[in-house]
Amino acid sequence: MAPPLITDRLLRSWLRCRRRAWLDRHGDPGQRLWTAHRALALSDQLASFQSLLPEKPGHGEAACAAAAPGVVGLRLRGRSGADVALEAHPALLERVPGASVWGEHAYRPVLGRQGRNPPREHRWLRARWGRLLAERQQAPVPQALVVAGAGRALQRERLTLSGGLQAQLEEALSKLALELGRREPPPLVADRKKCVLCSWRGLCDQEARRDGHLSEVSGIGGRRREMLLDQGITSLPQLAASDPQQLAEALAVHGDQHRDSAAALVAQARVQASGRPECLLPEGPEPLPELATAPGVLLYDIESDPDARDDFLHGFVVVRRDSGGAWPRLPQPGESWPYRPLLALQEHGEERLWRRLRRYLAGYPGWPLLHYGETEAIALLRLARRQGADEAEVTALRARLLDVHARLRRHWRLPVNSYGLKAVAGWLGFRWSQNGVDGARCLLWWRQWRRDGGARRLQRIFTYNRDDNLATWAVVRWLLDQEA
Ligand code: SF4
Known about the structure:
The chain has helices spanning 8-16, 18-26, 36-52, 60-65, 120-137, 163-180, 201-211, 222-230, 236-240, 244-251, 256-274, 350-362, 375-386, 391-400, 404-411, 421-427, 439-452, 455-483; strands at 5-6, 58-59, 70-72, 76-79, 85-88, 92-96, 106-112, 143-148, 155-160, 278-279, 296-305, 310-320, 339-343, 369-371, 401-403, 412-413. It is of the alpha/beta class. It folds into three domains: 5-180, Lambda Exonuclease, Chain A (Alpha-Beta Complex); 212-276, DNA polymerase, domain 1 (Orthogonal Bundle); 289-483, Ribonuclease H-like superfamily/Ribonuclease H (Nucleotidyltransferase, domain 5, 2-Layer Sandwich). The protein has a six-stranded mixed sheet. Strands 13-12-11-14-15 form a five-stranded mixed sheet, with helices on both faces. A three-stranded mixed sheet has the order 1-5-4. Strand 2 (58-59), helix 4 (60-65) and strand 3 form a beta-alpha-beta unit. Helix 1 packs antiparallel against helix 5. The longest helix is centred in the C-terminal third of the chain and has 29 residues, at 455-483.
């Protein structure tokens, strides 16, 4: 196999998951899934760069020689100490004082940061860009610049490129080159939460399912998996066949929490192995007693931009009993249920949003507000308090909010590897009307709409939000059906 050329992308992938880098190089590109996370990071980075350098940057070596204030598209090549071929594309170079091969100026690399903390991979990219840039411009690169936010909120942070980091980078590059030369991919990453962001998740999910990987059991993250491996339990079927009491005793050394979770983990694995749901409270109350007398319900789902702490859309679907008094199933093809999206534009202020929400909810007095997960209840009650709602109003609102996810977890164990809405409603056969759309994609549309407008983008956001509400109804319907 030809020695690999280590690009920024391979290094970035490897730092997230060693298998990912291997698949980037050797995997079947047809198996890759598009993911919105990279597009989101790039669009944030672009906004930060445009705030830092409002003029369009120059391109490549010629722009460096012409002393452009900002340069993109410069390809840097070099070799590591262990003779590994390297290629890097700094996202942006900023002109700084100093003499270089290009004249009486030099450059330093700039990176955009998404969120509050820079990811681990940034350190390595900075070090790598700094080293290769120093070679190319024949002048030291003592610092890199990290920017975040945009406009007047742009944050700048200068970070020193230390020699110690270069030594670690050399070591990492040698390991990466070695692993890329292997014929077999590294194993699945221990903490599979990371897989949500990865374009190889479809392929890896298939493999995990096929092999009964322990991460397929809902409730098992990287740490618990290690504990189970220490006990000689390496797969879902093995966990399902374990004795819960013995496992609890074995896990007690890791603390009460892990001892107490043993029985639930074995039970979950058994349900997943059998494919049959298990009722946890067969003699207990119904999961949704509030629906017994309600004339109708509102399904409620919020879309958020977590980095901006912005709940930008509150969407509601109205569900009424049919003429015979029964709850309807999902809308039939060609049928649509009333959907009300309330956009929350920050420039309009929270007071206006609260007024609109209050007016809308008052149109359905006492109707339960069904949502999946705690986000909606927390956000709505906090909003009410901030807007000065009195205790009686907050109490009445709280009494209407009904978390379908919490009720489901209390009453049922399902053969699903996650109790998130996508996994549960998907298991019930619900299909979202827009293929491959997730929260990250919706957020990308939102940011694009805020920047460039576009009625189609907004419509897609509404469709996604409405579908999430209908998926919640699919779960409610299933719970009601089990009562019958
Ligand atoms: S899906 Fe997960 S295990 Fe597979 S390559 Fe990506 S991060 Fe690694």
